Amino acid sequence: MSARDPHATPEVTIYGPGQAPFVVKVGLALRMKKLAYQVVEPSSAEDFQRWNPETGLLPVLDVDGVRIADSSKILDWLDAQFPEPPLLARDPRTARAQRALEQWTGETFYYYWLRWLRALFDLPKVAELPTTGASPMIGELARLGVLSRVREAIAERAGDVDLGHLDQEFERRLDDLTGFLGTRPYFHADRVSRADLTVVAFLRSLESGHIPGGPRMLAARPALRALMDRVDAEIGA
User: Fold this and answer.
1) Residue-wise burial string across 74-97, b where 16 or more C-beta atoms lie within 10 A, e elsewhere
2) DSSP assignment of 207-225, as one string?
3) Which of 34, 47, 85, 122 is 20 to 30 A from 79 (CA-CA)?
């Protein structure tokens, strides 16, 4: 796939819920590429299936009429079409490690998020959604009225639901992230990559209260908070 004309100004739209981590991840990548964009949020559950007929999953990126689904595939496409700055390290081994961390972060946060939903909502259909393998349709969660109620449910019900073991497991995963970062400014390298963008996108979901106890967990890990600040400063987010 050949690179686009670097002098052209593309029209870029992200379709998806503005605060959803995978949408935020794509937005961060676009900022890193210095590409202006708009976000169009779904107004109904049907929008998920209309914008992505194959899986109903968002985000979907539209660039001058070309549409790409799946946040990781979107970042691949962006690197092919807008090579600078690259979203991966030049060194192949480092790039593989960054891709692996990107995948681990998305799968881990999503796994625990669905488990919190199961604990917080008395909805049998949510309990039936898988937490491994193929991701469930986010549109189905919208139809169940879950997505718009997450923060409210956390505020209203978290104190009444025993989340202790779940919180402890998730905090260990946050400690894993701290360990992966080590003393480097960014994951596996000295410059921002798609791994950092993915981690920051999901840490923002903690900060905004979409995960029970998220702000407290983030405050207890200053290395992750500092990573967020570095990435924001570097890409102008």
Assistant:
1) bbbbbbebbeeebbbbeeeebbeb
2) HTTSSTTHHHHHHT-HHHH
3) 47
What fold, for 12-81?
Glutaredoxin (3.40.30)
* Distance (Å, whole) CA 129 – CA 158: 21
Record the pTM: 0.85
Q: What is the pLDDT of residues 150-200, one digit of tens each?
A: 556 556 555 555 566 777 889 999 999 999 999 999 999 999 999 999 999
Structure tokens at 81: 């079409």
Amino acid, single-letter form, for residue 70: D
**Matching residue, tokens 């891709």:** 99
Q: What CATH number should be reported for the domain whose range is 92-235?
A: 1.20.1050
Q: What angle do CA 170, 28, 87 make, to 5 degrees?
A: 95
Q: Domain coordinates of the chain in residue numbers? A: 12-81, 92-235
Q: CB of 14 within 8 A of CB of 37?
A: yes
Q: What tokens does 129 get?
A: 């959604």
Instruction: Give 3-state DSSP helix, strand, coil % of the chain, rounded to 5.
Output: 55, 5, 35
